[in-house]
């Protein structure tokens, strides 16, 4: 049943990604929902397509999307679709490849199916709870690095305190940055701000199924379909360095959170 549902989900995500990719080089309306938070008419078109298709696939499931008004009825649902129609809109608008369509099915607060479709990168990522994670048909495995020194992280520049890490290419989509850890192409990804569930839900499942470790930025477990639909940051790592990453980064996370 899970395989059949995952196949259907992947096909819907691919349809949505094809829609977005086909419009990427055209003129389209764009604006800012808030300063530094861009959106475009393609985000809304993809959101509408996904909602129609996914609601038909599982009529009983709730809905949480970056581009839809939140309906608290989802909180009473055991299963909820959590969607980012275009994760990495800034790259999409600029004609760069670092964006993806991100869709997760959450059950009892945890993702059980997850898909990222990144057509500009020719990548299709998929995962099902207990059945592994895959990119373009190749099974994903997190790296076996055991020391934080030398860990690869997708950032534009490393702060002085982290000069023992290695910066690697950073797509705008946080889901794709997390997926890099799942694929063993990066070893550590950390953010220190309140983030939305739709940004990370699908990628969290990819990480877990690839054997990586993922928590909030303080090292606490992640849960989905919460009233606020947010968590404080994300810390995704190869399993052998998560404890060391929490020790190193926790003071910065606490400072960012504004705690004494």
Automatic annotation (TrEMBL):
It comes from the Bacteria. It holds the Pfam family Inositol_P. GO terms for molecular function: inositol monophosphate 1-phosphatase activity; metal ion binding. Mg(2+) binds at residues 66, 84, 86-87, 199. Its cofactor is Mg(2+). Keywords: Hydrolase, Magnesium, Metal-binding. The keyword Hydrolase applies. InterPro entries: Inositol_monoP_metal-BS (IPR020583), Inositol_monophosphatase-like (IPR000760), Inositol_monophosphatase_CS (IPR020550). PROSITE patterns: IMP_1, IMP_2. The keyword Ribosomal protein does not apply. GO terms for biological process: inositol metabolic process; phosphatidylinositol phosphate biosynthetic process; signal transduction. Belongs to the inositol monophosphatase superfamily. PANTHER family: INOSITOL MONOPHOSPHATASE (PTHR20854), INOSITOL-1-MONOPHOSPHATASE-RELATED (PTHR20854:SF4). This is 3'(2'),5'-bisphosphate nucleotidase CysQ. It comes from Sphingomonas desiccabilis.
């Amino acid at each position: 049943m899970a395989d059949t549902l995952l196949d259907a989900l992947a096909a819907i995500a691919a349809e949505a990604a094809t829609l977005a990719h086909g419009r990427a080089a055209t003129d389209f309306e764009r604006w800012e929902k808030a300063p530094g938070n861009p959106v475009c008419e393609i985000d809304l078109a993809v959101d509408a397509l996904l909602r129609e298709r996914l609601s038909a696939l599982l009529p009983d499931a709730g809905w949480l999307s970056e581009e839809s008004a939140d309906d608290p009825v989802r909180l009473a649902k055991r299963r909820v679709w959590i969607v980012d129609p275009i994760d990495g809109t800034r790259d999409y608008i600029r004609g760069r490849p670092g964006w993806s369509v991100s869709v997760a099915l959450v059950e009892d607060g945890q993702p059980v199916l997850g898909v990222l479709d990144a057509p500009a990168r020719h990548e299709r990522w998929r995962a099902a709870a207990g059945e592994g994670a895959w990119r373009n048909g190749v099974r994903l495995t997190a790296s076996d690095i055991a020391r934080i020194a030398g860990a690869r992280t997708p950032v534009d520049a490393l702060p002085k305190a982290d000069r023992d890490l290695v910066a690697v290419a950073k797509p705008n989509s946080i889901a794709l940055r997390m997926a890099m850890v799942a694929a063993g192409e990066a070893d550590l990804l950390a953010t220190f701000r309140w983030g939305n569930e739709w940004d990370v839900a699908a990628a969290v499942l990819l990480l877990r199924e690839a054997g990586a470790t993922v928590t909030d930025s303080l090292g606490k477990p992640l849960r989905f379909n919460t009233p606020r639909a947010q968590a404080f940051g994300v810390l995704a790592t190869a399993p052998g360095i998560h404890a060391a990453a929490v020790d190193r980064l926790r003071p910065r996370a606490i400072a960012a959170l504004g705690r004494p």
